[in-house]
Write a structure and sequence with these properties.
alpha/beta, FAD/NAD(P)-binding domain, 7-stranded mixed sheet, 6-stranded mixed sheet, binds flavin-adenine dinucleotide
């Protein structure tokens, strides 16, 4: 092949996976071009609000200490919503620094600045339209104005990855494999947030709440709606969002904006955002196909990483850590190919081996049935068990002069009265199946 290369590696997309990939290559003194369609960092990207620090530290090394954040997220609540309120479980550790609340503009800006310091050549405001292929190898990219050539191209272009589709590497996603999420950034003054969420003035603590259940307000009529609601505290904003899979939205003919409006009115959520001003509204897709929908990850001259490869664990709201670490592994694999001057699929498949050794494929494998099982028990998770949990705690907390034994007995038998026995068994089976998969995972 007689090609004049502009760089050793081209990375498409400057989200967490792309910057991480570019950085790991540049740190070894290789020439990297990082191309991003957005005119300013992070403007095309969206998340709930927490970037996980273990992964950030692993990718950025000593530079990690320089990251500016708005709050440290170290309080987690799982809440099951019902019509009147919720049942919540919270874990809190003010000494933990396990996740940072950083807005995407700030996160991407900081990551890109560090990458540039190590020599990454960053090209913003440039859409990669297609890949250039020669003799069955990807050898570069075509933007609207230019062509750039490199022996290895890393696709970190996010959930829609048109470039992976161009190479026919993507498994076909069905609507059930994709979540549509919308989020509002709600501005409140800093003091109000600190009072409402019991936070310190120095921003060393912050809250993430994940809400389950849809049995409230006008959503009550949808008995099979699986939705996840999230809330994150920032310095002077609260991020509130909701995600529903595309199949559920279309089956129920629902508009996700209306779901978020309904969530905002919930009696447990409204007081947290009351008098706030919505200063930003965003929407994004999340790949949720998991292990079964992982695309072919390498081909001659090309590697796929991050959301483009579907590396997300939706059950735990983990995406940035998968993106950062998979990007790093993609970069390391490109370096091995460069050292061997061999860019074949065979050489680049070291990436698959690295992923298998990491938590990424291990977690995706052990959760391979979980999302499917959750969806198959939507009514149980969204409506029935939130109701039963509420009833249980009403017995625990009600001093109503009826013997507790009687109440707990009635409660126990109510499962068999108001639930068909086969439904109960299906719930138990689904729960066990998920637990066993995770326990005996890789
Ligand atoms: C609502 C929501 C909440 C979430 N909450 C969390 C959370 O709290 N914590 C967490 O860890 N994860 C969360 N995630 C997941 C996390 O945001 C993603 O997993 C992560 O951003 C993926 O990073 P990435 O670099 O692979 O892709 P992205 O961040 O999507 O970046 C892809 C980049 O590629 C660029 N691009 C795309 N196509 C082209 C092209 N043709 N040419 C040039 N550039 C291109 C895009 O502009 C973009 O900058 C959430 C996601 C959503 C949607």
């Amino acid at each position: 092949m007689d090609i004049k290369y502009n760089a050793d590696v081209i990375v498409v997309g400057a989200g967490p996976s792309g910057v991480s990939a570019a950085l790991s290559v540049a740190k070894e003194g290789k020439k990297v071009i990082l191309v991003e369609r957005a005119s300013y960092p992070g403007s095309k990207n969206m998340y709930g609000g927490a970037v996980y620090t273990t992964a950030l530290r692993e990718v950025f090394g000593d530079d990690f200490e320089k990251f500016k954040y708005e709050r440290i997220i170290n309080s987690h609540t799982w809440a099951f919503l019902n019509d009147e309120g919720s049942f919540e479980i919270t874990t809190k550790n003010d000494n933990s620094k396990f996740a940072y609340a950083i807005k995407r503009f700030s996160l991407e800006s900081q990551m890109i600045e560090i990458a540039k310091k190590y020599g990454v050549y960053y090209i913003p405001n440039t859409l990669v339209k297609s890949l250039i292929q020669k003799n069955n190898y990807v050898v570069g990219i075509k933007t609207e104005q230019e062509e750039y050539f490199a022996p290895v191209t890393i696709l970190a272009d996010g959930v829609n990855s048109i470039l992976a589709k161009e190479l026919n590497l993507r498994n076909n996603y069905q609507p059930k494999d994709i979540i549509l999420s919308v989020k509002e950034a709600i501005k409140l003054d800093k003091k109000t947030i600190e009072e409402r969420f019991n936070l310190k003035e120095d921003c060393t603590n912050g809250v993430n709440k994940q809400y389950f259940g849809s049995d409230f307000g006008s959503l009550k009529e949808f008995k099979n709606l699986f939705m996840m609601t999230f809330l994150f505290t920032f310095k002077d904003t609260v991020m509130l969002g909701v995600g529903v899979n595309l199949a559920d939205l279309s089956k129920n003919q629902l508009n996700i904006n209306e779901i978020l409006d309904e969530v905002k009115k919930h009696p447990d959520i409204y007081p947290l955002i009351k008098d706030g001003e919505t200063i930003e509204y965003s929407a994004h897709l999340i790949p949720e196909g998991g292990y079964k929908k992982i695309p072919k990850l390498v081909s001659n001259g090309v590697i796929i990483t991050g959301d483009a490869a579907g590396f997300v664990n939706g059950v735990h709201f983990e995406g940035t850590n998968f993106a950062l670490i998979s990007g790093k592994l993609a970069g390391e694999s490109a370096l091995i190919a460069l050292d061997n001057s061999n860019y074949s699929q065979n050489t680049l498949s070291i990436y698959n081996k690295k992923l298998e050794k990491s938590f990424i494929l291990k977690d995706l494998y052990s959760y391979r049935n979980v999302i499917e099982k959750l969806y198959s028990r939507t009514n149980s998770i969204s409506v029935y068990y939130p109701k039963k949990i509420k009833e249980f705690f009403e017995i625990v907390t009600s001093a109503n002069c009826i013997s507790k034994s009687k109440q707990f007995r009635e409660y126990f038998f109510s499962f068999f009265k108001d639930r068909k026995i086969d439904e109960l068994f299906k719930d138990i089976f689904a729960g066990f199946r998920c637990a066993l998969d995770i326990f005996f995972g890789k």
